[in-house]
Structures are given as structure tokens and as C-alpha cells.
Amino acid sequence: MEQEHIMDRSQRVALQTGKQLLQLLAFVIHQSYKKYKEHSNHGEQNWRQFNESGYSKDMREFLEGEVNLDKVKKELKKSGVRFHFKKETDGKYQIWFESKDHVVLENSINKAINDIMKDPKKAKDELLKKPHEKTPKEQMAAIVKDQKAKGKEAVTKKTKGKAIS
């Protein structure tokens, strides 16, 4: 009888210990998940994910030029900014970011400007797209621009020649 009482008591202690251990494990997993979600929200977001946060949003507009957007995205992600690029129909790009990251964005822009001022050639090599990184549309636009600068037409119009008789 006393032996059963001791076994029953040890089973309750083991059950309580197991329950507390599982609660601790659930808490640790929940905290890890929150930390993971917090860190995974940096960088480029799709429009829906970007608008889920409660922070106010700001926007800057850039012309689609020779700037390599992939490198800009990489720099913004490195600085921990949540952002979204939106392409407009007129060839402009909008970069949307949270207002709280305005200072970080300005600092990265100022850093880029200072780098350009210190060593323009190095900055040009880093920021401008290489010919193999350009899309075919951008390559054609560059060729047409070069031809117009030389004073030639990019494509000459051909007239119908004499037929063979």
C-alpha cells in the first residue's frame, strides 16, 4: 500500500515535470519564431507584405537609368530597410519604404554620393550596369543613343530595288 502511494506520487511529479518541460519548449520555440519573423522582414517585400506593417510609408521616385537596381536592393537589404520597388508605366521606379527608415535611407544615399565624390571612376564601375547585365531593351536604347550622338540613323530605311527580269 505504501509502495503504491510512493509510485503514485513519483508519477505525478514526473508528469508535472514533463508538463513544465513541454511548456518551456513551446515558449522557446515561440520566441525563436518571433525573432525569425522579425529578421526575415528586412529587405525587399511584395506590396501586400510591405503594407501589413503599421508604420507610415514614404516614397522616392527615380528614373530608370543606367543604375543597377540589384546593387541598390542589396545595399538597402544590408542596412536592414524594408522596401518595395514599383515600376511605373512611364519608365520611372518608385521605391517605397517605412518612414522610420528615412534616416537610414538618406544616410545610404549620402554615403553613395560621398563615394562618388571621392572616387568617381570606382563608383561608376560599382553602380553602373555592365553591358552583360543590361536587358536587351536597354542595350538597344544605348545603341540608338550612340548612333544619334554620332549623327547617323540607327536603322537605315531601305527602298525597294529593281526587280530581276
UniProtKB/TrEMBL annotation:
Residues 121-137, 145-156 have a biased composition (Basic and acidic residues). InterPro entries: DUF3801. Residues 121-165 are annotated as: Disordered. It comes from the Bacteria. This is Protein of uncharacterized function (DUF3801).
